[in-house]
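Posting for a labmate who doesn't have an account.
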Amino acid sequence: MKKLTALFLILLVCVSVNAQTGKKFRRVASNSKQAVTERQISSRFNSGLRAYYMAQYEEALQTFSAILTDAPKHAPSYYMLSRVYAGRQQYVDSENAIKQAVKLDKNNIWYQVALAKSYMTTENYKSALPLWEKICKAMPDNTEYLTDLAVCYEKTGASDKASAVRDRLGRLAPLANDDQQISENKVVTSGESGYKAQGMNSLQAQQYDQAVTQLEMALREDDTDFDLWNAFAEAVSKSGQWRKLTEKEEDLTTLFPQSSALLYSLATAFLHIPQPEKAVEYYQQALAFAFDPVQIQNIKRGLYEAYTALGDEGNANRYR
């Protein structure tokens, strides 16, 4: 279950029509027709996200479908449609939707992960196998994905390759070497779920340094979890370990180039280390996707501080 706070945080999320893995979000002049269109789509996408995370699947389905009527190449909406259909246990529709997302954004590895998981749900191991091979080549230390790869090898009769992956898992996490857990498509470690739970508990207990360490370990297991990133950013800000977040700049901006909340956190981290020129860059990106009045006010305050640190009085006064 998503926490209530996550439902409010998700209001800040809106996705670019042209979001691509490994690329910074393209800025568009705010007074252009295209900028207006993209903002409208982002606002509607934002509403669909809120409906999805509140398990209001029918509303989410209608919202994402309507976006695709107006913007047929909006890959993020196909991705979210896939999640909505999966939530409704319409697995064929879910698979077809994520296939469209992959087709539109071939370099987005997270869409590929979603498609591979969709194939696993329907026990289509033959189709899942080449995807997991590609994914594990890109992320060779992710025990969850390696486990899925081993399952596919076993199910398709490549037992020798499954054994090699099992040995690799054994070196990464000894408990992952259990044959029964491999066959059940699970790995029992102190990692993803354990570290996340520990980190969330530490954050709630205001043990911020400990929370940073635990949540960072959780991100090593699964860095696609939006709520986990938000918790990590909060723990970093409360503990003052700003470089912990700036070191993850590429991962964060690749995964969530549309999140004003995370871009704001990244900008604030750069302001404190200090690299005010980078802070300005990410505050401006965050401002482009912010709709919440409080968030906009916070971003403008950050821009004022960053420009002041740069000695740019003219731009600083714009956000005073």
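Reply:
Got it, the structure tokens are right above this. The chain has a mean pLDDT of 81.
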